[in-house]
Amino acid sequence: MRTRRCPATDLGACATAAWVDTSRRPFVDGGMAWVPVRDGYAWDEDLPERSNPAARGYQRLGDRVLFHGPRPDDAALRDAVERCSPRGVLWVRGHAGAERAPAVELLRGEAGEVTHRENGLAYLLDPTRVMFSGGNREEKARLARMVRPGERTADLFAGIGYFTLSVARAGSRVHAMEINPVAFDYLEENLAANGLADTVEAGCGDCRDLLRGVYDRLVLGHFEAPAYLADALAHVRRGSVLHVHGVERTPGELGPDLARTAADCGFVVESSCRPVKTCGPGRFHTVHDLVIL
């Protein structure tokens, strides 16, 4: 693991730096910290990889730490504070409704807005008001690699710009839709902050009311996305690609249902499935790539 060495007291200050690999935890010992460095940035020391399967996992978001799932115990809380020196520690109990509003409890320090940097993009958000899924990092990068410059993309559940920013930077003309007005405000701020406001048309409201015209690519990045597939299929042509997210016990089990919905709408699709991450015992977050034939 490539790292930069700094005093442990500086961890909070450097948490939002572009060079920090936020997918890994820093190593702290004796008042010093070794902070993981992203590919392409200068580093000081290459530490051997460590594995501690008993440790409670958490998410670093800017200069805050977020726990998901069951409430963390005192040992997990101490571990996070010692390793990260965060400005605040929050427990995210879950997300509710179509707007994916978080239920959050502040456990230590202070809450507030953070700037999270990932894959060269900056995401401004307040984790007590809107959700951010760090586990989608590779999926954002994969999607950006698939984009053909100039194509028209619909992002049906844009949030604060999770997929919109990556796809727009890759050269797509994006129509971004978000029903949560708080998340929509952050979406507009993030488009401006990343210099992408001129390439994205953003709309606040239900995507079923905002979809317009025909798209080359449609991103349905919501666990309830299969229920919106028929609406999305009203805006495709031969060669269009839909990325349909969902939750499955076995990756791929949604495939026949999605193909059946497409057939009911008059389309034949070529389908492939990719696991994104686990999202609970025996449950997988997956994405199905559907190509209209």
Class of the largest domain, according to the CATH hierarchy?
Alpha Beta
Tally of structural domains = 2
What structural category do the secondary elements indicate? alpha/beta
What integer value in Å does the Rg equal?
A: 20 Å
What percent strand?
A: 25-35%
Overall pLDDT metric = 88
Order of strands, main sheet, comes to 13-12-11-14-15-17-16
Biggest β-sheet, characterized? 7 strands, mixed
Question: What name does the CATH topology of the largest domain carry?
Answer: Rossmann fold
Shape descriptor reads globular
CATH architecture of the largest domain: 3-Layer(aba) Sandwich
Assembly classification: single chain
Helix tally equals 8
Description:
- By secondary structure, this protein is of the alpha/beta class.
- The protein has two domains: 2-112, no CATH class; 134-292, Vaccinia Virus protein VP39 (Rossmann fold, 3-Layer(aba) Sandwich).
- The protein is built from eight helices and 17 strands.
- It has helices at residues 11-14, 74-84, 137-146, 164-169, 181-193, 207-210, 229-233, 255-264; strands at residues 2-7, 27-29, 32-36, 45-46, 59-61, 64-68, 88-96, 101-109, 114-118, 121-125, 152-155, 173-178, 200-204, 217-220, 241-248, 269-278, 284-292.
- The strands form four sheets. The chain has a seven-stranded mixed sheet, sandwiched between helices. Strands 2-3-1-4 form a four-stranded antiparallel sheet, covered by helices on one side. Strands 5-6-7-8 form a four-stranded mixed sheet, with helices on one face.
